[in-house]
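Table 4 source record.
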Amino acid sequence: MYYGNKIAENRWTIRETRKQIEQKTYERTEIANLQIATEINDLQHTFKDPYFLDFLGFKEGYLENDVETAILKELENFILELGTGFTFVERQKRMIIDDEDYYLDLLLFHRKLKRLVTIELKIGKFKAKYKGQMELYLKWLDKHDKQDGENSPVGLILCAGKSAEQIELLQMHKDGIMVAEYWTELPPKKDLEQKLHQLLIEARERIAQRHIYLK
């Protein structure tokens, strides 16, 4: 059903459909969906987790700026991995707050959601302080950059590793912020299936635990 809908929506070719199936796009979308609450359910099926950035050709010892530069060189592949509807707006978007300069890594726009999407790249594991940084950027964009008829901006923090409990405790989805891993190498099919299966189990366990606490 998922792939059938996506073929109709995105006009995938047979080759592209096979690629999406091999890369377990449905499973990765499902993992991301578990972060999203009903308050922002229009974001469902837009984001994935993890993202495969194997086309960048990185191994070890890279910096955040290296990732950003490589993404711009491979922008078409990056946007294809993000999914349909995304268009590139700006790199290193400058924002002046209290006479200080701030720069967000990548700014995109999603046509269907009618939202700006800001992407921050981190080479290490997720840290709680990233939430405050992203919230500041989103508030600034909402006040100064959002056009008439657009919805409030959302943020995607791409990290080399996730800190699942921190993300769960911070409830970042309520502020329109998603966190996802990026993998610079595509693992063998068997390993990929095992890793994604484990990620799904862990995500569902965290959601179930949250419901227990709320009772």
